[in-house]
Amino acid sequence: MNTTPASLPGGTWTLGDMTVARFGYGAMQLAGPGVMGPPADHDGALAVLREAAALGINHIDTAGAYGPRVTNRLIREALHPRPGTLRIVTKVGAVRDEQGGWPPARRPDDLRRAVHENLEDLGLDVLDVVNLRLGDAQGPRPESLAEPFETLVELQRQGLIRHLGVSNVLPEQVAEAQSIAPIVCVQNMYNLAHRQDDELIDDLAAEGVAYVPFFPLGGFTPLQSTALSAVASRLEASPMAVALSWLLRRSPNILLIPGTSSVAHLRENVAGAGLPLSERDLAELDGIGR
Ligand SMILES: NC(=O)c1ccc[n+]([C@@H]2O[C@H](COP(=O)([O-])OP(=O)(O)OC[C@H]3O[C@@H](n4cnc5c(N)ncnc54)[C@H](OP(=O)(O)O)[C@@H]3O)[C@@H](O)[C@H]2O)c1
């Protein structure tokens, strides 16, 4: 098993001024059912985070809204004091309601509170990357991000945030953010079956901006496709391994943050994501989302 960021499948990417393994980890699945409350297996959740670090993963994606305030505190408990090379990317812009919904919270006071809560829960003085999450659970919405993004820029100037990103956004919102301040990443839904961001990914690659697909394995609805199953069985691999290998191959600026609450699945995903996909495999997989 690989044990350094550079030897993980996909190698590394420079996120702002930080070198991260392209194979990262998304912490959302560590909270309780519906991403609410604590995990059923607290020690198991800590074990997943510690295994990720032991495997060389140094990019963890999280949010104060997971739990809420559950995954950030688990990350702190499992990994504090973190090595200087571990980068934690968080999101602000939504909170949780009593029904488990994700209502927006993007007024300046909401965002300031969220940044301070993230700092407190993660035990940090500076957040490595903060993504402004827009839209809603159905996806991006056409709306200006100027006011909330400018609030984050102000918090960055105060030294509380190293780098900025945006999430759940349309291409024109990426451009609007970039007209205000530099961003290092865009985090949107994208996988073998959902490819609406193909052009955006290529544009960001040309600019040196990372694209971080959420739901790389399909999220709450696992990816299912006859073509994916056929390629997986030909390669004697799992569909998850094929889906992750395809993302790493798709573009060098794609950073993976697959989620899992299982040490075994984490190991499987890391071990499986470096499949050498042939032109025939790629052609068959390309057909899934087109
Ligand atoms: N910006 C946003 O709005 C947004 C939205 C959603 C998610 N995110 C971020 O994106 C990350 C990734 O998304 P996600 O975790 O929701 O979805 P995902 O990575 O597409 O899929 C996670 C699901 O796949 C299962 N899984 C993982 N590896 C497996 C394996 N080897 N075999 C079988 N099942 C496997 C997990 O179950 P087990 O736990 O049983 O392994 C879990 O149910 C999140 O953790 C979060 O950090 C961001």
TrEMBL record:
Name the keywords, alphabetized. Answer: Oxidoreductase
Record-linked Pfam families: Aldo_ket_red (PF00248)
Q: TM segments? A: none
Give the matching PANTHER family: AFLATOXIN B1 ALDEHYDE REDUCTASE (PTHR43625), ALDO-KETO REDUCTASE YAKC [NADP(+)] (PTHR43625:SF40)
**Protein name per its UniProtKB record:** Aldo/keto reductase family oxidoreductase
Q: Which domain of life is it from?
A: Bacteria
| Organism name | Streptomyces lienomycini
Record-linked NCBIfam families: PRK10376.1
